[in-house]
# Entry
Amino acid sequence: MATIQKEISLVAKPRGFHLITDEILEKVPEISQAKYGILHIFIKHTSAGLTINENADPSVRRDFETHFNRMVPEDMSMFEHTLEGPDDMTSHIKSSILGHSVTIPITNGRPNLGTWQGIYLCEHRNRGGSRKIVLTLMY
Amino acid sequence: MATIQKEISLVAKPRGFHLITDEILEKVPEISQAKYGILHIFIKHTSAGLTINENADPSVRRDFETHFNRMVPEDMSMFEHTLEGPDDMTSHIKSSILGHSVTIPITNGRPNLGTWQGIYLCEHRNRGGSRKIVLTLMY
Amino acid sequence: MATIQKEISLVAKPRGFHLITDEILEKVPEISQAKYGILHIFIKHTSAGLTINENADPSVRRDFETHFNRMVPEDMSMFEHTLEGPDDMTSHIKSSILGHSVTIPITNGRPNLGTWQGIYLCEHRNRGGSRKIVLTLMY
# Structure
């Protein structure tokens, strides 16, 4: 068995949900060597998250933003930790609801995602900047 | 170390939360060979999820359905992505909140779950059909 | 490659969100031997969870408690599974939203977390007691 690990930086993205499948996978061409394994994708931040969801219709990503803004409202009277503005504490909460890592199976040298599955960066800050990701391939 | 991987199809289930621990584990008898390891369980869909929760009282699974229907309401006026009906976009959102994979420890040839823990299929669609799962055992 | 696994018990904590990074990591000094790998941290309970979030300002943990109590209200009229009181069913739901495991990358003998990331125990019960955790290091 082998372990391959890389740390990468994503291009900065505006607030919202973004499909990053290609931006991730092109960084680990070693996947083609793995018959069976897993790829662990980890974001090193507490105000952005990672998830897997629909990879075709951009309205799904917009609806995610709509829903999460309603479910975790930017009501500063609710929170103590508001120094960086109304998107500060809500970003921490959203990132823990969605999660800081996804792990996907690798099969016959390819990511074994469903037809409609893609990897999302969930950028919750108004100005999040570039985000660091650690990729660990084990096979 | 060894990696064993299988892709399986679950029997189609109605909308709601379903205990699938046995349906999963009977497909990987190789767990008995693993002294220490992990089992990664991944669902290849974007409108159903996987989680771990209480394995004894069926009312817990019904209460999950009640809560998630309230927390992610089927209000089509909220969403753009509604072509397949009111359970379309909400299913995408619920699946990302609950997650698309669970990873459990394997110890001395057995899944090392707590006494009350079971694996749930979270079926969010009214007619989701059979669901594909990839199981990766690493030890 | 190697797999090291341990089961530990956390000191009992009051309801709320608690930073447990040090309490976890001091139990796996073998991390120092791992050039590249992952550490899987799994909680064997259905009424407490694990997540990663901000490790510096205690008000973030208090705001998590505030938000989750609002998002998953202790309204017993909503639920069937209420035998153990108003914090029973809500604890099950909160734990599945936040998740039962976190997996972190290990790099050059150290956990490769972001500057502001720490591991949280999410204790949802009023009297949860000591919690059991399984740690699996693979490298």
Remarks:
- The interface with chain B takes residues 1, 36-38, 51-54, 57, 59-60, 62-64, 66-67, 70-71, 97-99, 102-105, 107, 112-117, 120, 138-139 of chain A (CB under 8 Å).
- Residues 58-71 of chain A form the longest helix (14 residues).
- The helical segments of chain A are 21-25, 58-71, 86-98.
